[in-house]
Fold this sequence. Notes:
The structure holds two protein chains of two kinds. By secondary structure, chain A is mostly helical. Chain A has one domain: Up-down Bundle (Fumarate Reductase Cytochrome B subunit). Chain A has helices at residues 2-7, 15-38, 45-72, 84-114, 135-170, 174-179, and strands at 119-122, 125-127. In chain A, helix 3 crosses helix 4 (84-114) and helix 4 packs antiparallel against helix 5. The longest helix of chain A has 36 residues, at 135-170. By secondary structure, chain B is α+β, with helices and mostly antiparallel strands. Helix content of chain B is 26%, strand content 21%. In chain B, helix 2 (53-64) crosses helix 8. The longest helix of chain B is centred in the N-terminal third of the chain and has 22 residues, at 21-42. At the A-B interface, helix 2, helix 3 and helix 5 of A face helix 1, helix 2 and helix 8 of B.
Amino acid sequence: MKAPMMRTEHQHFSFLSRLLHWLMAILILAMLFIGIGMVASITDYHWLVSIHKPLGILILVLAVIRLVNRLIHPAPPLPSGMPGWQRFAAHASHIVLYALMFALPLLGWGMLSAAHDPIVLYGALHLPPILPPDVGLYAILRKAHTLLAFLLFATVLAHLAAALMHALIFRDGVFPSMASSKRREDSPSAGKLR
Amino acid sequence: MPSDPKHSAQYRLSSLATKTALPRLVLIGVIVLGTAAAFAGVGGWFSPHRLTPTRIINTFEQVDGPHPGFRRNHAKGVCIIGSFAGNGQGEHLSKAEVFRQGAVPVMGRLSLAGGIPDIPDGPKGVRSMALSFRLPDGQEWRTGMVVIPVFPFKNPKAFYEQLAASAPDPATGKPDPEKMKDFAAHNPETLAALKIITSKPFSTGFENASYNGLNAFRFVNAEGVSTPVRWSMVASEPFIAETPDQAASTDKNYLFDALITRLGQGPLTWHLIVTVGQPGDSTKDATLPWPADRQQVDVGTLTIDHAESEAPGNCRDINYDPLVLPAGIEGSDDPLLSARSAAYAQSFKRRAGEDKQPSAVQVVDPAKVP
């Protein structure tokens, strides 16, 4: 397991990077759907909220692990032929994704603190408040939570679209670097779509 | 990063307009837009008739008018502050710390049902008590109770339909009696519940009223045994039925003012009485009373020391969500519980961001009166 990871370090995301990426992809998408669903629900509201809170904290913990992992194992370089604006879009969207992985759980935790609501994870297990009770502050954080959740969903969609473009149109090895455990090939088909 | 022009062609826009690329582009579009559409669908954007917290609170605003900064229901109220002393009798039913011997601080609120913050006190106004028990380890128990013995609506849909039917008709300024009749015809359980509710008058005041949790909950003890329960705060002051002279009072706050005066003379107490359900007792329909012979356990005493006008940081800023529960108390299968939680959250979200007006009920500190 260890030897191939070492060999492909500069071409390929590490096993831990890929594990974190796909696990968090599922959790974040689930979280976004639970979030939009619960605020529009009556009878499903409570059980959805009681998943939303611990899941948010789990995502925050994973985001910390992921950021540390990213600093230790940097992402493989983008293909050298990618135009500048695409490289910029790729880097900028990743910064936004990382920032929101931290910001949304922290906003959720902060807004519950400002609302003086207990931050219950499961049963008696709960977190301390991180802000003093202040309803005006709650109102601002609550709005920001919704707004940034929409921004996260939009960025996730852009990320998905770009990943599929790399996989199906550009076929440049960017998609396999995250999707498969095999070393990225200098695919003979790359650039020869026509 | 050295640029490699021979690989760049695949990234050009012209490479998208090929026979191979076009169907793939369409596939990508379908996946991305499909995900967006699913998201919007879950959020109810394609189902305008879905009953959502937004619709419920909008309807409250239609019925009672806009009153920014106030609760959309139970708008008129006063804070009550004191403590709850468990006596240990509830420990075999629930592991919640609040039932052990010892006192926990309580921040509560007494209020009148309805969304009008300066509605005059009256004999028909439904009085309510909301409490927040602050447990030593940071857990919290919130409950909202009312003086009526059963709830008139069996589910959120019935509650909403009655609320919508009570909206004033633009032509007359009053609810359309046909709509109200129609609602009653389709909801016989509401008529049955109203018969129980109107069979007994309210008391002379907040201080000698007993408040009922109405919805069923589940108590879970240390062994994991789950028991269906309902609870009430039963007044220590003797019940006296409200008299017509009270309603004739020119004081629009006669109920609240009497409470404040009474608290000036000393603390008030209530006993938390837990009714233990038996198999077959409905936990999901708050219109149905449980049989009168069910076991009742006195699990502790609520002592209210003083009242306080609504102000920043006190009961004004608490959302008395009935599903804020400590370990040892759980919601039942009553669909009204989640609906209350959802609607209260929507009301709280709106009023939190609005400018605040002083409450119609003001507690005058006797020390400051010359």
